[in-house]
Amino acid sequence: MDRRAAKAAWKEATPDAGVYAVRIGERVWVGAAMRLGAAERRLRFTLRMGSARPAALQAAYAGEMTFEVLEAFDPEMRPMTRERMLKERAAHWVARLGAAPA
């Protein structure tokens, strides 16, 4: 696939938005992302490079982590609704799990 076709395919892909949890040992962080797959790849990369945020997440990392999708949203959801729901549901899961925001 050439570069132009890859770019077009990426733009046409429906976002897999949702809320996720990152578990390292007994600690849990909750975050939300428009693209869950990209969020997991970015998080794993920044942890390996030593530049993950928040700093407590990086400090807890010792080579092992679990990325868990807590909630995935309907791809047909309107963008403004999706953004609002990401914030609301992430706050819900932070409270429910007693987690820190990622």
Mean pLDDT: 93
CATH superfamily: GIY-YIG endonuclease
Q: Point out poorly predicted stretches.
A: none
The appropriate CATH architecture is 3-Layer(aba) Sandwich
As for the number of domains, it is 1
Strand content: 15-25%
Can you count the beta strands? 4
The CATH C-level name is: Alpha Beta
Note the total helix count. 4
CATH fold title:
GIY-YIG endonuclease
SSE pattern: HEEHHEHE
Question: What is the CA–CA distance across the termini?
Answer: 35 Å
Largest sheet: 4 strands, mixed
How do the strands of the widest beta sheet line up side by side? 3-1-2-4
The coarse overall form would be: flat
Radius of gyration equals: 15 Å
Structural class: alpha+beta
Helix proportion of residues, in percent?
A: 40-55%
Protein name: GIY-YIG nuclease family protein
Could you characterize the architecture of this molecule?
- The chain is α+β, with helices and mostly antiparallel strands.
- The chain has a single domain, classed as GIY-YIG endonuclease, CATH 3.40.1440.
- It contains 4 helices and 4 strands.
- It has helices at residues 3-12, 36-49, 55-60, 79-97; strands at residues 18-24, 27-33, 66-72, 100-101.
- Strands 3-1-2-4 form a 4-stranded mixed sheet.
- A hairpin with a 2-residue loop joins strand 1 (18-24) and strand 2.
- The chain is flat and about 40 Å long.
